[in-house]
Amino acid sequence: MGYSMKMSFALFFAFCMFLQGTLGEVICETLPTNLCSFAIASSGKRCVLENYKNDQGKLEYTCKTSEVVVERISGYIESDQCVNACGVDRSFVGISSDAFLAPQFTARLCSPACYQNCPNIVDLYFNLAAGEGVYLPALCEKQKANPRRAMLGLLSSGAAPGPVAVDSADFVADAPAPSFF
């Protein structure tokens, strides 16, 4: 058997193992770190990327199961297409609502390519926004109409400290979460 045939067989085998893991049971602790963020275990809990120092003091990463349960979806690994469309990064440790303070992030999250096609990521950030008192669909509408005003409204909602005073009634998370699934 030639080198190219062996390489083809090895790639096929690796792909089959990956596909089996994707379609079969997803266990956060067994995921490679480059697939951890935005994955959901078969148990329905979100996977999170964590860092730690190894015995030599070098920073390493591991995938862990969080206590956050996702309704109506389990055993899911987010696609690279959605990661790119939504402007998120699988290499970030932890996920924060601070991302909303970057107008580019909010624009990408609210873009049709993300908002209409990537319910897992949108659900995650919907919940983060709600935790800050912001209703994501209203923020996205403001983003489309006037990105600068959307940022001012977000800042005044309490999502981040700042001296800006704008009526934030449109941003308060008092409505139910959208049904994506």
Automatic annotation (TrEMBL):
InterPro entries referenced in this protein's UniProt entry, alphabetically: PAR1 (IPR009489)
Key words, A-Z: Signal
Signal peptide: 1-24
Ligase in keyword set: no
Protein name: PAR1 protein
Source organism: Abeliophyllum distichum
Taxonomic classification: Eukaryota, Viridiplantae, Streptophyta, Embryophyta, Tracheophyta
